[in-house]
């Protein structure tokens, strides 16, 4: 019952006995002195009568203090030595305690009076303010097993009542999965681990002060290595030292050291040279190269599983030769290797060879070379390779000496008697035997079968690979390996297991944009049936997400090996995998590929650079696909980072390629859906800016016919035909003109001047040189010098220089011929027949006309495809051809 309730009870009692005095309230601090007041009232006549003073504590029926005049007071043992009268009836209490708090009653008994005893008396309430003190605390040290739990109880007393809290390393503990704190001051530590060891403090605090009690928790469990060993490197014959420090409770630690997997005391060559100190240090005396390897420290205290920590010992030593064989077998007339089995740390730097006791200079032998490890490679082993070889290896620390001699022996390599076929196809569950046999000298080769990439399979009976019941895992490429002391040879075959689910797709590639990803892959073996694919994807979840990882799947149309996944979130990590299925079921998933979608570009209110879109986007169909070309954006000062090409079949734009380098302005769109209408557009990217789209071009993916010619070629042919028609028309008019001139010459009696060679006496034919006809009459005629300078000399086919020729009229004096040339005159034959008809003259000129036509065609092609210089060069032959044509018309017409 609290003191307020007690006060109510006392007030009721006092009111019944007509006590005029009000109760007193006294407050003291623990350890101090206090006086509880009590007055004595004498009769009105003033006589001093004897009296007895009694002090009661509420709730106790007998007084704890009685005093009568000069006699010693009677005091309860709880108050002995601490109480005495102060004045007539007041009570003084020394060294006030917390338990002294409560209601006190003072009674004064007058021995010679007959009135109410309660008239002389009073009630006093004593309040004792005390700092917190503990009434119950846990031990200073407590032990608990690792993985268990423990409860620490702490109770405190004080006035006012203190609040009890628990602290660890200065942090107040609250209830959670590890700790449970109750209102009565107890602390429970659950699932105790090594990290929970240490000091726990119980703190009781109030307005009067605080009290703290600390308990240290000792966790019983296996040791914990606080200083693991570290890798060390020593030279041969030096000492090696590994340190290993562990902590545990109880601390009766023992250390065990292992070399690889063996106890160091169980290794014959090591047990006499090692010592383990009490603190766990391992010392290896006089280290040898064989001591190198992994050393493991394992401390133990007989509780739980002992931990371990490893470190590596590296031993450096001069280069040495290990196990040099006395005989070295090499294949005859095949590449061979003469090995020097070197062991060195640091690695070998050079190897010196001797053959038959003399230094071997490899460069003097054709086809011989020394490998990085010092071995000798022989391109083709012949009798010249025979001999006795020794080698001396060197490294940075030197050498341990020369190798034993080894004799080189030539042997024939093994060969296959029976080779496996190129491929085998068999249904799953059926039996299959793949034969393979080999022979060789000096012994029969060993046959082993191995599957390419997976682990090796040991040899089968009769050197054949036998499958009792084929399974899906047996599918793949197999190799038969024949090995003897000379060399190894292999024969490959491929096994197709029919009637299984598909194999996993390979080489999955994902190219992501802001909201989509282009997934492509290489299909695996279909199991003998048509297979289809589906793409599975989902966002990457954090480790804190405990929910299920839901993936979405998108079927792939047809048998295509790519798919564009839409509807992705920007700046999000996604995982992709491809699954194949056929009528027998689904195969395994492909490897999982993780990509991040691109973040949307952040547009600034006032961009510093205005990025314009690419220009002049065009699309041309080719046999390989659609060729897209464009021009860079105009009026941009900063360089472009890359281009993006998008396409659409319907209303939604999709990314074709978003990583086109800035220095490229064309791309080939392949693998388009046949007979579809595609639209393309281009965008430019610079830093965080993306331009608006370029012009949109559309093109059909219908296959282009192989027939027909390109427009430039057609234009060239049309131009050539037109030019040829004009040439024929011009030639016809020229023939008419020449024929008319010829008739006029006959009427005027023109003489022809021919040049005759003085050596042969024959005149030159027009077939030997290009005839230039100069008619001197009746029109004005050039002088011989002008004619000679104009037409120059011609060269015959036999290399002789042809002289100029002249034609003069009978009206002019004869010309002086060149030296060595004998001119002669001929009168026109009046009896010669009339000139041939025009069509006959043109027929006679047909060869020259045909050559002209070919030249025109050649010139037309040149106009279409050749540079201007070649056009001039080739078309000059056309004009020369027309010169011959006109000459033939003139001669034949005459």
UniProtKB/TrEMBL annotation:
Repeat found in the keyword field: yes
Keyword Signal: yes
Domain Ig-like: 15-108, 132-218, 223-314, 318-409, 414-492
Domain Fibronectin type-III: 504-600, 613-705
One of the GO biological process terms: cell-cell adhesion
Organism, as annotated: Pygocentrus nattereri
Gene3D superfamilies: Immunoglobulins
PANTHER family from the UniProt entry: IMMUNOGLOBULIN SUPERFAMILY MEMBER 9B (PTHR44170:SF51), PROTEIN SIDEKICK (PTHR44170)
InterPro entries found in the cross-reference section: FN3_dom (IPR003961), FN3_sf (IPR036116), Ig-like_dom (IPR007110), Ig-like_dom_sf (IPR036179), Ig-like_fold (IPR013783), Ig_I-set (IPR013098), Ig_sub (IPR003599), Ig_sub2 (IPR003598)
Domain of life: Eukaryota
Residues that span the membrane, as ranges: 713-738
Protein name, entry field: Immunoglobulin superfamily, member 9Bb
Keywords: Disulfide bond, Immunoglobulin domain, Membrane, Repeat, Signal, Transmembrane, Transmembrane helix
Residues making up the signal peptide according to the UniProt record: 1-28
